[in-house]
Amino acid sequence: MKVESLPIYFGFPFPRWFKDYSKDAFVRDLIAGITVAAVYVPQAMAYALLAGMPPITGLYTAFIATIIAALFGSSRFLGTGPVAMTCLLSASVLFSLQLEPQSDQWIAYMGLLALMVGFVRLLVGLFKLGFVVDLISNSVVIGFTAAGAMVIALSQFKHMLGYQVVNSTHIFTVLADIVKKIELTNPYTLAIGVGAYAIIWGAKKINPYIPGALIAVAVTSVITYILNLPEKGVAIVGKVPQGLPDPTMPPLDFQVMSQMWGGALVVAFFGLIEAVAIAKTLAIRTGDKWDPNQELIGQGLANIAVSFFKGFPAGGSFSRSSLNFALGAKSPLASIITGSLVGVTLFLLAPAFYYLPKATLAAVVLSAVINLIRPQDILRLYRINKLDGIVAGLTFASVFFMDLWVAITLGVILSLGSFVYRTMYPRIVILSRDPESRTFVNAEKRGLPECPQILYIRPNMSIYFGNAQYVYDYILEKAQERLQKGPLKYVLIDMEAVNYIDATGSETVIRLVKSLRNLGVEAAFANIGCDVYPLLENAGFDKVARHELVFDSKGQSIIELFKRIDHDYCRKECPYVVFQECLVVKEERKEAKKTA
Asked: Which of 117, 126, 177, 502 is deepest in the core (most CB within 10 A)?
């Protein structure tokens, strides 16, 4: 049987990996897998601390999530596992439960959170609802990322400085506590942390593929052992158990789950944004075909799996995925190799991390997030669109005062609210014919004359319950103003830009037709879309609007309406030549005078 003809059994896409697979492709996957693993091991342990978990649980999560997501996903580059922002958001959810980081309760409920996040992502993928991630706008992501990176950086200062800091994700609270206790700084811990950061930074400068974090781990662990720094107050990882823990069902405490659902949804959807954005970007660069819903299924199953092994919520990593891309990974087998090497480390080398300073892990985290603190991106957004900039700024500022998952929820509400607000007051344009281009343009903006007998108006947005009354009031008010100036006969409503209309909008249009008729004015319509007309018809539009006043195009509507207006008024009273047809009537007047 040919590989390409193999079905995806039970959602496994891996049979398709090996179509035209070659020895060279395997070598590339092997190199990518080994290189990423060298970066991944210290990073996973560091991010575990960020989630308030013991460092070893980072390897549990990395081992399981990376392999499961690769088996069930669709991107050959996406690396799934511990991610800084996801870890931080997860910790924020558990902080709201007043739990102590690294306690048995914290570890158990972090597993429960991973289970909840996993089911959300799995259901989104199975029901092909990946589009919901678009509800979190780029302005919210930019504002949250900048502030979240600051929270991450501040959260690592306790490990860098060597003393306990209040457990919180509120920037002001943490910063105040750091300053208050600054005299407690352990100089040995600080030296280890700064040295580790310098090694990582220097390695990146020399060559971005050098595993600076792994070098820093090795060097600082040896120094800590030789100088016996634990005796001088330097915190170390300590005894690390080998292998995986026995699988355990997370505690299904429904009262706690009801408190966690809001945070779980935020963690799930923010992680979806990261994963989908990374996979999509890299797929576009290489021309790969990928399935976002299959990717979400992989993400969901990965989180469900880690929840049984003292893990925490995982997501797609931009840095590790980019490294896979740069190294030319040919299939998700690269991630399988990465996860397997993490497993080898977990089962064989775990005791070697005994003397690993926590300050080194803090340096690993700092090196990963320091470049994400970019408030200038908020100013750039503000220059492009003030409302988007304000949403990003408020999301950024809210992190200073509230839990992270609440802050990002507020940002989403502000973003959606600003969009709804803009759609509630759509741009409505009065149209007239340009005498030079002979096209219909904005009469008010160009200062062009308008036909006194035909008010030609165009709503530039779909009509729905949020803006229907505004459209009604605006058109009726313009009709009343025109009646005061001249003998208005028709209001021509161009529906070209109305791509959708709901029940409220349909009923409002019918009400508008009746209200205009009560003023002695008939409503005419042009360019009603084939998706819109049936909805209007269902509301009784055909029983109210005159059939002969519903037109297919602008040109047809003007020709037919012009036939119905008062030509005597055009000849004797109207000083304008708005339409081509006006010239004919004006010429008739001149000919009549000559004859007289």
From this structure: 117
On whether the CB atoms of residues 430 and 455 are closer than 8 A, the answer is yes
Query: What percent of the chain shows pLDDT beyond 90?
Result: 54
Strands (E), 8-84: 79-81
* Residue 97 reports pLDDT greater than 60: yes
How many residues make up the chain in this entry?
596
Residue-wise DSSP of 133-185: GGGS-HHHHHHHHHHHHHHHHHHTHHHHHTS-------HHHHHHHHHHTGGG-
Please tell me whether the overall predicted TM-score, pTM, comes out greater than 0.85 for this model. no
Q: Residue 83 forms beta bridges with which residues?
A: none
3-state secondary structure of 205: helix
For residue 193, the tally of other CB atoms under 10 A from its CB is: 28
Tokens of 467: 């803006």
CA distance 79 to 88: 18
Domain range annotation of the chain: 22-413, 428-595
Judged by DSSP in three states, 308 sits in coil
Report the CATH fold assignment for 428-595. Answer: Transcription Regulator spoIIAA (3.30.750)
Q: Is 77 helix (H, G, I), strand (E, B) or coil?
A: coil
Strand, helix or coil for residue 526? strand
Query: CA 582, CA 288: separation in Å to the nearest integer?
Result: 58
Residues 572, 594: Cα–Cα separation, whole Å: 15
Q: Contact at 8 Å (CB) between 458 and 491?
A: no
